[in-house]
Amino acid sequence: MKKSVNAFCAFHLTEHKELIDGCGRPRGVAPIPLSRGIDMLMDTWSGLDMGLDIDAETTSKFWKRLWKLPMLSRYKVFLWRACWGIIPTVETLDRRDMEINEVCPMCNYDSESIFHALIDCTEIQIMWVMANFDYSSRMYHANVLEWMAVEAGSWRDEQLCKAAVAMYCVWERRNAKKFSNELIRAENLWPKVERIMEEYQAANLTDLNNATVLPALEWKKPVYPYVKLNVDASVRREGGGYLGGLVRDTSGCCLGAFMSHTQAPDDAALLEAMALRKGLEMALKIGCTHVWVEVDASLVTDMLKTPCAHASALNAICRDILNFSENFQHVSFNWIPIICNNVADFITRKVRPDS
Ligand SMILES: [Zn+2]
User: Fold this and answer.
1) How far is the centre of ligand 1, averaged over its atoms, from the C-alpha of 42 (Å)?
2) Residue 258: helix, strand or coil by DSSP?
3) Which pTM was predicted?
4) What is the average per-residue pLDDT within 209-221?
5) For residue 129, is pLDDT > 80?
6) How much distance in Å is there from the Cα of 125 to the middle of ligand 1?
7) Ligand 1: distance of its center to the CA of 174 in Å?
8) I need a surface site. Which of 246, 247, 251, 350 has the fewest CB within 10 A?
9) Which intervals hold domain RNase H type-1 (predicted)?
C-alpha cells in the first residue's frame, strides 16, 4: 500500500500544493520519478473495479469528447481526474490507508467522497441552482464519471464545459477553506464560472481577429539578417510587360535596383513571377544571404508556398524560382497589398517609354 501512496503523491506533485513540501517533493514519502509513479498508479487502477452501471462504449465516447472541449486543458484534466477518482479528498486518502478521520471540511457532516466534494455537498447546491443550465440530473447519480457518461451525452459543449469549470472552482474553494481557512461564498461560485468561460471565449475571438488582420498598410524595413526584395510588373499594351524591383537593407538603404522589359508573356501573374526571378538574381549578385521577398500578386506567393506538380507556365517559373532560392541561406515569400509596394511599382512604371 505504501507503493500506491507513493504513486498517488507523485502523480499529484505539480497540481496539489498540499501534498508537496517546500522543495516540491511529496510530503512524508521519498520522491519517485513521475513516469514510474504513473506506471505504478496504472497498476493500482487495473485492479480497481469502479462498479459503475455504464457500458464501455458510452465511457469511451465521453473520453474522446472531453479532450476536444473548447476550454483550457487545466479544466479538462481536472474533470478527467474527477472521473477517475484521483482527487485527494478525505475519503480517497482514507481508502489509501492514509489515516485521516475527518468529514467534509465544507459541511462538516458527510464523508468527503469526490462526488460529495464536487457535486453533492449541501454547501454548494446554490451553485447548481444558480447555473443557467439544468444540472438536476446529478441527483440520480453518485459518481462523477457515471453522471458525465450517462447525462452529458445530451448536453451542449457549453453545458459540459461549465460543469467542469464549476467542479474546478468548487475544489479550489474547498482547498482555500481547508488549507488557508479562507471562506469563499458559495453564491460567488457560478458567477466565477461564467466569468472564466467568457474570458476564454473573448481570448479566442481576439486570436481569430488577429489571424485575419491585414498586414500594416506601409512598407516596413526588414529585420536582421534579412534584406527585403520588393518586385513588381505591369503588362505592356503591345504584349509582354515591364519588370522592376529593388533590394533594401535593415536601415531602409537601397542596395540595388533593376528595371527591364520583356516581349512575352502578357499575363500579369507570369510577369510578376519573372520579376521575382530577376530580383533574386540581383540579390545573389550583390551578396545577399537572407532574402525577404514581397510581391503584390497572391497567386505567385501561394504557388511558391504550396508547390504542386500541375503543368502550367506559372508553375514552371515558380519551380525555377524555388530551385534558384537554394543559392541563399533563406528566402521567405510574402504577399503584400499594392500600397506597400509603391517603390517597386514606381520603378516598373519608369521603364515605360512614355514615362
Ligand atoms: Zn460536504
Assistant:
1) 29
2) strand
3) 0.48
4) 66
5) yes
6) 10
7) 9
8) 251
9) 230-347
